[in-house]
Automatic annotation (TrEMBL):
Enzyme Commission numbers on file: 2.7.7.15
GO molecular function, one term: phosphatidylcholine binding
Protein name: choline-phosphate cytidylyltransferase
Disordered: region residues: 1-20
EC category name: transferase
Residue ranges of domain Cytidyltransferase-like in the record: 49-83, 85-153
Organism: Lolium multiflorum
Superkingdom, taxonomy of origin: Eukaryota
Length: 170
C-alpha cells in the first residue's frame, strides 16, 4: 500500500505494466552500461523484506534510477509496501542467482549492495559472485543506521520501556 498523497510528497510512479506485455530482447554485451538501448533495462533486486524500512525503499529507488529507462523486478516475500518502486514481484526467488534465473525472467542486471552474502550451504562465499563475474551487477548503497537487524535490536533493547509506557496509558 502506497502512502497517502499530499502536495509535498514526491510524485507517485506510474502503475506497472503487466509482466506479459513487456518486450524483451537480450542486451548486446557490447553495450556495457546499457546506455544505448531504447528498450527498458531490466534490473533485478532481491531482499528479505520481513520488516520493510527506509533503507529498503532507498535501495529500490537507487536500482530504479540506475538507468534512464529501468524496468525493476524484485524477488521478495509478499508485502504490499514493497511495491512502491517495483514493476514486478518474483515470488520464491532463489538465494543464489544463476543464468537460468536471469534468462527465465529476462533480467539484464541484478542490483544489491556489495557486501558478500554467503550461500546457506557454505558452497559459495558470495551469492552474487556469478552476476558480478559476468558484469551484470549494479551496486546499491546501504543506508547507514537503518537495517532490519538494527530496528529489531532497538525494539528488544527498549522492550521493557515500551511495555511500561503502554501499561500506564491503559
Amino acid at each position: 500500500m502506497k502512502p497517502a498523497e499530499d502536495s509535498t510528497a514526491a510524485q507517485e510512479p506510474p502503475p506497472p505494466a503487466a509482466p506479459s506485455t513487456v518486450w524483451y530482447e537480450p542486451l548486446p554485451s557490447s553495450l556495457g552500461a546499457a546506455s544505448l538501448t531504447q528498450r527498458p533495462v531490466r534490473v533485478y533486486v532481491d531482499r528479505i523484506y520481513d520488516l520493510f524500512h527506509f533503507g529498503h525503499a532507498r535501495a529500490l529507488e537507487q536500482a530504479n534510477k540506475s538507468f534512464p529507462n529501468t524496468y525493476l523486478l524484485v524477488g521478495c516475500c509478499s508485502d504490499e509496501v514493497t511495491h512502491w518502486w517495483v514493476d514486478e514481484v518474483i515470488p520464491d526467488a532463489p538465494w543464489v542467482i544463476n543464468q537460468e534465473f536471469l534468462d527465465k525472467h529476462h533480467i539484464d542486471y541484478v542490483a544489491h549492495d556489495t557486501l558478500p552474502y554467503a550461500d546457506t550451504s557454505g558452497a559459495a562465499n558470495d551469492v552474487y559472485e556469478f552476476v558480478k563475474s559476468i558484469g551484470r551487477f549494479k551496486e546499491t548503497k546501504r543506508t547507514d543506521g537503518i537495517s532490519t537487524s538494527d530496528i529489531i535490536m532497538r525494539i528488544l533493547k527498549d522492550y521493557n520501556q515500551y511495555i511500561m509506557r503502554n501499561l500506564t496509558r491503559g
